[in-house]
Design goal:
278 residues; alpha+beta; D-Maltodextrin-Binding Protein, domain 2; 2 domains; five-stranded mixed beta sheet; 10 helices; 33% helix; globular
Length: 278
């Protein structure tokens, strides 16, 4: 909802005369909080009902966290804008305000992400990783209630909700490679709706779009989603270069690689990085 209000404000700033009505939609991912994301289907569980509303002309545009958007969109839909990306790093919050590396052995860390779990165990194999679901407020409440000694959250979510002061530690993108599209908001619409596409083009942030495009090309090469331990992060280096890091883990361990390339070949950079890791 914060992201939707933010997109609404961006559009209203550009076209003050526009009238925008918010239409909240509850998705499968919102409803099934007792099961892990991997069990109920991964990425698509947070957007399927919203995309259906788009296809049935019940809404004109949809706001998503890009990390929840599968690499293949339904026919007739397009991500028409990615506004400026926020801080893509992961954040650590603990009950004792202790950093991850200073926690006692066997400390209980909550995360619903296989990507975070793999990288946590790579940093500290002596930790107990427990599943956690729910929105930011719910997860922080569970931490305070003592269900966990620490939890991992996206820094962007904490910052957007005004709870950045509760962050104990920010991981570098090398310590904890972010999810593909993390901290980026995508606005989806029907591909044949030229009026809406033109409107959304006005709030697109080119460098954020380029970075997320490279990351999604990396993910598409593996056919992966939330249920797989895959991470990637790209950033621009000047006007024409892109730097990228990718991570894939399995039962044998974790592999991380870097790659640089040209902005105009952002998708190819993501694919080449995926091929190197594979």
């Amino acid at each position: 909802m914060w992201q939707t209000q933010w997109v609404k404000q961006l559009l209203e700033k550009i076209q003050p005369e526009i009238s925008i009505q918010l239409c909240p939609i509850t998705t499968q991912g919102d409803r099934q909080l007792s099961e892990s994301l991997a069990h109920i289907g991964g990425k698509g569980v947070f957007i399927k009902e919203i995309e259906q509303a788009l296809l049935e002309n019940e809404i004109d545009l949809a706001v998503h966290s890009m990390k929840d958007v599968p690499t293949e969109l339904p026919e007739g839909l397009i991500i028409a804008a990615i506004p400026e990306r926020a801080d893509a790093r992961d954040a650590f919050v603990s009950r004792t305000e202790t950093g991850l590396m200073d926690l006692p052995s066997e400390s209980r860390i909550g995360t619903g992400s296989q990507r975070r779990k793999a990288q946590l165990l790579n940093l500290r194999s002596d930790l107990r990783i427990l599943d956690i679901r729910g929105n930011v407020d719910t997860r922080l409440r569970k931490l305070v209630e003592g269900h966990y000694d620490g939890i991992i959250l996206a820094a962007a979510g904490m910052i957007r909700l005004g709870r950045a002061d509760e962050i104990c530690e920010l991981f570098s993108v090398e310590q904890m490679v972010p999810a593909v599209g993390q901290a980026a908001v995508g606005v989806e619409c029907r591909s044949d709706d030229s009026e809406i596409r033109e409107l959304l083009a006005s709030i697109d942030h080119p460098s954020s779009s380029v970075a997320v495009t490279a990351e999604r090309a990396f993910l598409a090469h593996f056919g992966g989603g939330c249920q797989q331990p895959i991470g990637a992060y790209a950033r621009l280096d000047g006007a024409d270069k892109i730097q990228m890091i990718g991570m894939v883990a399995d039962e044998k361990g974790l592999r991380m690689e870097h790659m640089d390339g040209l902005v105009k070949e952002s998708e190819e950079v993501g694919i080449r990085l995926a091929e190197r890791i594979r």
